[in-house]
Amino acid sequence: MGAHEIRVRLGGVSRQRAYQISSRADFPKPVADLAQGKVWLAEDVEAWMKVHRRDLDED
User: Residues 22, 10: contact at Cβ < 8 Å?
Assistant: First the structure.
């Protein structure tokens, strides 16, 4: 899952907001850092969202 997919999955947040979220210490670490950007395992991001989605709405 790339940054664009994360933005979509988080409800269409801005690039800046997606960067803020993916930079959090508790966000899953990317499995690769390619020329096009970082890549995360979809299951890691989905599991993280299940735990933290309410927290994000309050930020």
Answer: no
Backbone angles phi, psi at 38, to 5 degrees: -80, 155
Output the pLDDT for position 24.
Answer: 95
Domain coordinates in residue numbering, the chain: 3-58
In 3D, which of 56, 58, 59 has the Cα closest to residue 9? Answer: 56
Secondary structure (H, E, C), the chain: CCHHHHHHHCCCCCHHHHHHHHCCCCCCCCCEEECCEEECCHHHHHHHHHHHHHHHHHC
Residue pointed to by tokens 């309050």: 58
What is the model's pTM?
Answer: 0.83
Q: Are 16 and 22 in contact (CB under 8 A)?
A: no
